[in-house]
Amino acid sequence: MMELRYLAPDTLDEAVGAFAKAGSAARILAGGTDLLVQMRSGMLKPGVIVDIKKIPEMTGIEQAADGGFRIGAAVSGMALAEHKSFGKVWPGVLEAINLIGSKQVQGRASAGGNLCNGSPAGDSVPAMVAAGAIVTVQGPGGRREMRVEDVPAGPGRTNFKPGEILVSFTLPPRPPGSSDAYLRMIPRTEMDIAVVGIGVSVTIKDGTVTAARVGLGAVAPTVLLVEDAAKALIGSKLDDAALAKAAAACSAACRPIDDKRGTIAYRTKVAGVLLKRTAAIAAQRAQGK
Amino acid sequence: MAKVHVTTSINGEPMEFLCEPSDTMLDALRGPLALTGSKEGCASGDCGACSITLDDRLICSCLMLAVEAQDHEIRTIEGMAQGDKLHPLQQKFLEMAALQCGICTSGMLVASDALLKKNPEPSEEEVRFWLAGNLCRCTGYDKIVRAVMETAAEMRAQ
After folding, report:
1. What's the pTM?
2. What is the pLDDT of residues A271-285, one digit of tens each?
3. Which domains does chain A have, with CATH numbers?
4. Fewer CB within 10 A of the end CB, N or C, for chain B?
5. Which residue of B has its CA nearest to A102?
6. How large is the angle between the packed helices B105-118 and B88-95, nearest 10 degrees?
7. Does pLDDT of A3 surpass 90?
8. Closest Cα in chain A, distance from residue B111 (Å)
């Protein structure tokens, strides 16, 4: 049996070097709530684990002067919930992250891990897509930025190049009248995996939607950015016709699987229903109601 | 295989132990550290029986590598009572029969303690949501939730 080595470098350069050198045998450890379960079940036998939590850039939350946020890839959901202003600016992103697992899991699990795990049903991912978050990744070839929606490649897979590590999320500054929301459909109230998850971010001026983004999860091999749904909302006053059009766009975007949690027909229908509900919550928040 | 030497703090005491790099914190607690109050239920972060705090944050010790404890502060169920004096939550769990078989109890207590430190006046709904990651197959939860509410009320009154 190959011996496991545990590394906890203090700098990103060291982490990237160690991760790239170990190749496919290496795994990144942030909260470990997916990695340790995969190791325990025998699904995964990494040769090297690179713990990134000693790297300040990975664990920090910073708000820039323009109001935008940079969140380290290893920041836990609980740390984000305790931040004094993040949840006021991005309530939808926060509620999505804090739907992941139990309080115990939220104490460790990160949005970075949720994205890199590549699950189509990761709760934070549709909310991050709706938020228009950009990720910074660093690898042997240097640093680059990607849109969140371009990261997942399929179940359990990402579009990172070999040796690349997710460093942080950057969320843009918010114009006045902006907010977001995330809803997921599960058969229970806690501790479950999304049947459908949807994040909606809107900007509303004088009752009219001036900007919108919709992220849709658990209904396709990857989380989706649904541009047609956003187009249906932009320019509208969120009237029934616009919401119906946006809901239809979400249902049309679905390419779900049939499984014990939900059938194809059910997931496709619920995607539209949740769009309406989520957009309503985001709009209420945006208008300070 | 080379064991790793870990220096940490457990229940306020400096502590050292040796572990394999792949051992979980729960393995270390129940093995070399002989602190068997934390239980292994699922070993996949679903049941909460292994709940501990890491730097005052509630976590599942089955989802943490033992080597990660280096230079951090761990608290377990063994640190809850002060000598022979039970923590108010422990006392109330006994008085109100908030346990039967006991496997979930240490996790319930550690999680409830973490809640009351963060929120001394939780609503019943907040208690139930907070404890959603602690499974109990005996009590039906009602006695546990009532014991936590009652303890919170008494601790506030003091």
Report:
1. 0.95
2. 999 999 999 999 999
3. 5-119+134-171 (3.30.465.10), 183-286 (3.30.390.50)
4. C
5. B133
6. 130
7. no
8. 8
